[in-house]
């Protein structure tokens, strides 16, 4: 079963993190939604956070995980917010189980194919040799040689934990990601359609969702609207959480 943090009570709202993230990334926003009439389920997707580690890693498997999670928790008529890879999972859930989903919010990703673009990040993560028992500072120093962006490193460092005294490890399943990276970029099938209200939110400075993608989005989500958060990149919910929350909560009401 998937690990989750549950906040508040009311209409069920699932929040799905991006690649190499975890539910903790959404703690502040999730708690905020929990005070506004939602029972918020911040979920660790498989091979991330505290959820199961498995050799199986695909959108098909992650959709099945979410479906079983909803069934086990008696969740119906759910709303979903998904960011990046979590947004792609959310799109797959909505198009394969439309009876389960009420409204869908997709943050800075589209239904199209995305080529691999995490090579430097994976190189930095794989460069860390935990058998040498590095400190947190040493882990960051190693990663900085491959990942110059401070914000990206801080995001990745959130998945670092003490496996036992003196022994750090990453919570995500790096070994499987090294083998299955192509799974992250796969597109929705051509016949995948979700006709209920769908909101795409993109960052103005991000290139994940372009104006030229709108026609492709409409084919899968005919009842879609799109909002752009100014001066924000791919981490739009972290860069401008106030506006992200305002746009999202307005759509969900």
Sequence-ordered SSE layout with sheet pairings:
Layout: E1 4-7, E2 11-16, H1 27-34, E3 38-43, H2 59-72, E4 78-83, H3 85-96, E5 101-107, H4 119-126, H5 136-144, H6 150-157, E6 160-164, E7 167-170, H7 174-180, E8 198-203, H8 214-220, E9 224-229, H9 236-239, H10 241-252
Parallel strand pairs: 2-3, 2-4, 4-5, 5-8, 8-9
Antiparallel strand pairs: 1-3, 6-7
Helix pairs in contact: 2-3, 5-6
Structure write-up:
GO terms for molecular function: hydrolase activity. The structure is a single chain. The chain is α/β, with parallel strands linked by helices and 253 residues long. Helix content is 35%, strand content 20%. The protein contains ten helices and nine strands. The protein has helices at residues 27-34, 59-72, 85-96, 119-126, 136-144, 150-157, 174-180, 214-220, 236-239, 241-252; strands at 4-7, 11-16, 38-43, 78-83, 101-107, 160-164, 167-170, 198-203, 224-229. Helix 3 links the parallel strand 4 (78-83) and strand 5. The mean pLDDT is 97.
């Amino acid at each position: 079963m998937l690990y989750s943090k549950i906040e508040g009570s009311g209409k069920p709202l699932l929040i799905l993190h991006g690649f190499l993230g975890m539910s903790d990334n959404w703690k502040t926003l999730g708690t905020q939604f929990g005070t506004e009439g939602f029972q918020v389920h911040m979920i660790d997707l498989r091979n991330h956070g505290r959820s199961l580690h498995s050799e199986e890693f695909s959108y098909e498997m992650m959709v099945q995980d979410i479906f079983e999670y909803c069934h086990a928790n008696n969740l119906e008529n759910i709303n979903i917010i998904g960011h990046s890879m979590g947004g792609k999972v959310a799109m797959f859930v909505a198009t394969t189980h439309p009876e389960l989903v009420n409204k869908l919010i997709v943050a800075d990703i589209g239904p199209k194919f995305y080529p691999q673009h995490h090579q430097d990040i994976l190189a930095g993560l794989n460069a860390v040799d935990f058998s040498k028992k590095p400190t947190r500072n040493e882990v960051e120093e190693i990663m900085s040689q491959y990942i110059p962006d401070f914000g990206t490193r801080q995001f990745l460092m959130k998945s670092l934990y003490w496996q036992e005294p003196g022994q750090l490890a990453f919570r995500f399943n790096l070994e499987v990601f090294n083998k299955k990276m192509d799974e992250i970029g796969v597109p929705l099938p051509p016949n995948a359609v979700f006709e209920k209200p769908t909101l795409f939110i993109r960052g103005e400075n991000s290139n994940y969702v372009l104006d030229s993608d709108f026609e492709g989005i409409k084919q899968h989500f005919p009842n879609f609207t799109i909002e752009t958060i100014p001066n924000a990149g791919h981490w739009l919910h972290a860069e401008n959480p106030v506006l992200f929350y305002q746009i999202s909560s307005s759509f969900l009401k």
